[in-house]
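To whoever picks this up:

The parser on our side crashed when reading a file containing two proteins. I've narrowed it down to the boundary between the first structure block and the second sequence. Both blocks are reproduced below exactly, byte for byte. First block:
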Amino acid sequence: MIELRTPAEIEQMRPAGRFVAEVLAETAAAAKVGVNLLELDRIAHELIRSRGAESCYIDYHPSFGASPFGKVICTSVNDAVLHGLPHDYRLRDGDLLSLDFAASVDGWVADSAVSLVVGSARDEDLRLIDTTRRALTAGIAAAQPGGKVGDISAAIAAVAHAEGYSVNTQFGGHGVGRTMHGDPHIPNDGRAGRGFPLRPGLVVAIEPWFLQTTDKIFTDPDGWTLRSADGSRGAHSEHTVAITDSGPLVLSAP
């Protein structure tokens, strides 16, 4: 079921968006060469406790997950692009790291993701990250009242295709509200003018993610982490966005 939020409810979602942005900023700043992924998860966990927030991940067990996630932040490294389960791994120079975090504050959820390079960066990694960021910007700009979900999808895909990247549509954006994942699904490729209407009050997570040389993925033996089929690297950018009468409002902006 798709729910539309009142202007007052959208205002109530702002603290969740700010908190998610703060956690991503702190964990990204801590992501240095030699830092363990479990330490990044610990930092996020401590911030959740200190804020009195609730994790959307720790008990999360959808049909595609092998078991409850058990951690509070997704840490996807190099050929991992989504749902990276934190484990005993120390970041190395040149690693491409994606951080995806969602939390509930006062009963409202926000969801956001960033990608970065740890230490020395390769040009092709920076280009991939920049493409996801520009695709996110394009998707947000297309999230206009009176439009359709396909407008967002088409805008994202146009940026990816212009850079020569193919697009996987198995996982994409989604509704956000009292829970982390809801309708509508927002694929990262589609046709403008098609799909669910973008009405004021609709709140969604828009999340382009691309792989360098494939659009095929597989699930790691940990039952969660999604990796590229050919070992190429991936990047991911995401914001929680409310559709308002005056246009898109980014709730998870730093």
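<<boundary where parser fails>>
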Amino acid sequence: MADAIKVLVVDDHQVVRRGLRTFLEVQEDIEVVGEAADGAEGVARAEELRPDVVLMDVKMPVLDGVEALRRLRELGNQARVLIVTSFTEQRTVVPALRAGAAGYVYKDVDPDALAGAIRSVHAGHILLQPEVAGALLSEEENNAGQGRGSSLTEREREVLGLIADGRSNREIARALVLSEKTVKTHVSNILMKLDLADRTQAALWAVRHGVTG
């Protein structure tokens, strides 16, 4: 499965890990390359295995999912992280997204929806619910961000709006009749001007400030 999406499952419950592996391994385009029982092990395994997508539980011993995600980003690991959480843990989604998660799913997600979520974040999309986006920035951040946003060109605002819609670079290039290389340049400029770390934060900024594609 050379072209399969490589997935690492990080969860402290063995039954959950086994269940996820059993389901995902029947997907022709998804390969579970490893498991980890806590955040620290998850970071180490992600560095070793270089998965495309990490399914990351939030509450784990040794190192929780949010801190593990921060460490991956500090190490420059490019894996897309999909947070797996329960509805009662929704408050943990905000720090996870701020730390660079590509989105989140609830633990009772339909199996087919989970596979779809993995494919989606791997393709560069962001899984974000509007009610969560609204809680991600304080009013102080909002006011500061408005000033930074004025430095964006019209084309950069168009690209930012499409990022907020969950479009990948390839889809943005098609929509705006640009090359993917040009889109990547615009994305880099947007992140630099808005002082943001990644596409997820850019999407959140766009939602908060009403920039849509």
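After patching the parser it read the second block fine. The first helix runs from residue 14 to 24. The beta strands are 5-10, 30-36, 53-57, 80-85, 103-106.
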